[in-house]
Amino acid sequence: MKEKRKISVFLDTNIFQGFISFKKESKVRLFDVDVPQHYYRITDFIDFNHLYDKIEICIPKVVVMECKQHMVKCFNESLEDLKGYIEIYNKIFGSLIDIKAEVKLNKDTYAKYVDMCFDNFFSNPRNNCKIVDYEEEEKLLSILLTKALEGVKPFTKEKINGKYYSDAGFKDAIVAETIYSHCLKSDTIGVLISQDRDFADAFEMKLKSDSEFVQFYDIETFVKALEEYFETNPKQWIKEELERNKYWHQRLLSEAGLKLDDSVSEIKVEDISLVYDNIYNVKILFVVNETNYHFDFKFDSVGKEPLDIQYNVDND
Hints:
Blueprint: E1 7-11, H1 13-16, E2 20-22, E3 25-27, H2 40-49, E4 55-60, H3 61-93, H4 107-123, E5 129-132, H5 137-150, E6 158-160, E7 163-165, H6 170-186, E8 189-193, E9 213-216, H7 219-229, H8 234-244, H9 246-255, E10 264-276, E11 279-288, E12 291-300, E13 305-314
Parallel strand pairs: 1-4, 1-8, 4-5, 8-9
Antiparallel strand pairs: 2-3, 6-7, 10-11, 11-12, 12-13
Helix pairs in contact: 3-4, 5-6
């Protein structure tokens, strides 16, 4: 297989940060960094295929700043809302209820707590990502000013009170320039995952060997593009995982009341076939005390869970 160029994937705020819908508003979790679970589809893909030197996950500094700002703003607003809810429901229920709440942080100390949460997140190897900043601030400001005046995407010309403004994409423009700068220095393909549908002209929509900058709207589509680009096979991941990992061996054998010990002389994945989406049908053979145990089950490659496990025995 031809050597593939390294990929630097950048996540926008609307992908990196989880949001909670509450009374037609979007809230964020306040006690830690809440990345959506599908973020780990990328880290799992890297782990499964041992592509640590081929894919790096980058979070633009301005995205981190925006996520922190969302948390601080939500904390301050929710603190006031909480006081109001306690007061009104105590009035409604009267002697029937006694609502109290101890908030362990205040507006002055919460910002430092948020900084600590993000420090912990980025230092955790499980998350496998780093913060990337645009290093030359004066140069960046000059570039942004020029593009804002020219209305170059992602700057957009908005009409407000009858007058046109072209600075509506300031944060997105910083993200774009951060990607351009980092990938030029690193000689990598720059991938942005963002729900924004009108980001920048430099980004195409398909990942190819000669790509420079590519955008995807969601992580699932990106991971499928990685599978095609790196020519990986999900069936091979599953086969290697089920034949190598003793956890699955014991998990399956326990269904037949057996233990993983010296009586098990052979373990062989006989067939894997796609059922739908990320669900595969798996047939695996265990030879235990010269008896063949044929297991047939479905395997969720995302949730990593065997489903509908059945088995039959021959050579008793």
